[in-house]
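Below is a filled-in request sheet from our internal design queue. Each sheet records the structural input a requester submitted and the sequence that came back. We keep these sheets so that new team members can see what a complete request looks like end to end.

REQUESTER: design group, bay 2
PRIORITY: normal
MODE: inverse folding
CHAIN LENGTH: 217
BACKBONE (tokenized):
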């Protein structure tokens, strides 16, 4: 059993991760449905929403972003990959809706992340106030490394999503080829069996039956 202090430490880490940025999610949207996510944002701050359709159909979804007053601040029709930047003018719950209502056959696998723009500094991620004094050389180097690593992480996730989409397409193609091969094999087997049966009937010896009944005079 874990000690109490270690359990409290793990719970604190989980709590921090829930409220930390960027927030990343991968969702499946069935055909003909809409998925909405909600997030409390602060006023007078800039945010960035990046979404990417990984798999399904023509790799497109609808997107609508609404503020707490239900006003539309951004709308995209049948987009595939986009990096959207917007300002939050009021405090409250913002709505991010991904729509797949135009599709009647295929569900969509969508990845999206929400983060401040630009990326948060180390002090902001730790929940501290921004630095009001000039950073030291060590602090400046750490902030630069943090910024570059944040960009590298986002790029790596984007490339990983592309690889996942390509792999899912390859698996679907492999499954389709397998089913088609089975159907063709069955058709060839049935056709061959039918041809053999017909040819066998052509070359079979036909038996002639003679009547032994005597003819009447």
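RETURNED SEQUENCE:
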């Amino acid at each position: 059993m874990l000690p109490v202090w270690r359990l409290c430490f793990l719970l604190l880490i989980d709590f921090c991760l829930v409220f930390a940025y960027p927030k990343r999610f991968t969702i499946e949207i069935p055909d003909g449905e809409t998925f909405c996510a909600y997030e409390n944002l602060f006023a007078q701050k800039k945010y960035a929403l990046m979404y990417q359709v990984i798999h399904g159909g023509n790799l497109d979804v609808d997107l609508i972003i609404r503020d707490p007053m239900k006003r539309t601040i951004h709308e995209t029709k049948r987009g595939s990959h986009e990096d959207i930047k917007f300002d939050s003018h009021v405090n409250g719950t913002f709505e991010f809706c991904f729509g797949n209502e135009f599709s009647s056959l295929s569900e969509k696998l969508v990845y999206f992340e929400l983060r401040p723009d630009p990326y948060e500094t180390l002090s902001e991620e730790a929940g501290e106030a921004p630095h009001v004094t000039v950073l030291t050389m060590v602090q400046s180097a750490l902030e630069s490394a943090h910024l570059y690593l944040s960009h590298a992480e986002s790029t790596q996730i984007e490339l990983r999503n592309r690889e996942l989409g390509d792999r899912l397409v390859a698996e679907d193609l492999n499954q389709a080829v397998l089913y088609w091969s089975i159907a063709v094999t069955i058709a060839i087997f049935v056709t061959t069996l039918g041809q053999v049966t017909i040819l066998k009937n052509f070359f079979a010896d036909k038996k002639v039956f003679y009547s032994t009944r005597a003819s009447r005079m």
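SHEET NOTES:
- The radius of gyration is 33 Å.
- The longest helix spans residues 137-202.
FILED BY: M.R.
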